[in-house]
Every structure is written in C-alpha cells, then in structure tokens.
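explain this:

___
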Amino acid sequence: MKKNNLGEQHTIFNHFISEIRDVNIQNDSMRFRRNIERIGEIFAYEISKEMGYKNKDITTPLGISTETLMIEKPVLATILRAGLPLHQGLLNYFDDSDSAFISAYRKSKKGGKFEIKIEYMSSPDLNDKTLILCDPMIASGASMIMAMEAILSKGKPKHIHVVGIIASSAGIQYLKENSLVKNWTLWIGAEDSEMTSESYIVPGLGDAGDLAFGKKK
C-alpha cells in the first residue's frame, strides 16, 4: 500500500480541511457539503497524475496543437450517504466516469457495540479498470474493507485508489493488515491519532453524513 497525505503539502487544501472541522462553520450544511466537494476535486486532480496518457492532435482555428490527454476512465465508487459530496467532487473532474454505490450502515448491538452491514450495491464491470473508492472518514477501517470486498465481486480492477478525507492511525493500520488486494493506493487529507470506543475519530469532525444531510433518527 502506498499512502499519500495531501494535508502535509501545505496548500489551500488545508483551508478546506480546517473548515469542515470547525464547529462554527459546520452549522452551514451547504458550505460543509461544498468544502467536501472541493476536497474531492483536489483529490481527483492529484489522482489524475497516476493515470495513463497519450498525445493527441487537436485542431484549433489557427492550426494543430498536440496535447497530452488521459486515456483512462476510472470507475468512481462511494459509500452512502456520507460519501456523496466527496463522490461529486471526484465526478466533477472525472466527468465521464461510471459510478458505483454501496449502502452500508452501523447495526447497533448490546453494550454500545455495533457491526457494519452492507444492504445494497450498484456497480459497472470493474475488470481491468482503475477504481476510486471514497468515504470521507476512515475510522476503524472495517466499513472500507467490507465495501472493497463487496465491490470486488464486480471484477478485478488493475488498481484501486482509496480516498478518505480524515483517517485514524488505527484505521490506516487496519487497511494495511486486511486489504484484499496488493495493488492499491491510499489518499487522505489528514491522519488523526485517536479514536473513541464508538469508532469516532478524534479530533475528527463528527458525523460527516449528519453534517452534510441532517441528523437521522
């Protein structure tokens, strides 16, 4: 596994990270969603550097310009519902890509514990494709591994890019130890060292799905 932490590069990306963490700015759900979307756009730009390219002659009004263009069309996958704004940011740049959606949720158990359940998945064929699988928060890492396992039933990608805005150190370690494929890259915006017993990242930002779309019952 290769890990890329964009938050370590000291760019405007860090401003978007700080705003989605800020409890005062979080009160504006539209801005929260837009910041997640902008973060997705930056991830897409960086991931595009890993794609295959070839030269193509483009006819302009005054002549021919040789441009280097991406020849791959990645499949974009996300975990519902929190992943939707991040997925949209990726889709804004990879705008002709096919999409996959995975419905996963926490099923509560006695003692405050829970297990991850996957109810539904929709995906195109993934054989020999580049797959970008995103979820804003990588806490324990369990839901990401389960999502990866489910989506791999739709084919064998040539490479997987896993995108998470904020990840816990424990979650990253879990992904390393339990990944179902060897050829994959992890992209994050920040790594936080702590995680609560309920698998919330500290300092994190709270529940990304609730902040983006409202609290659920």
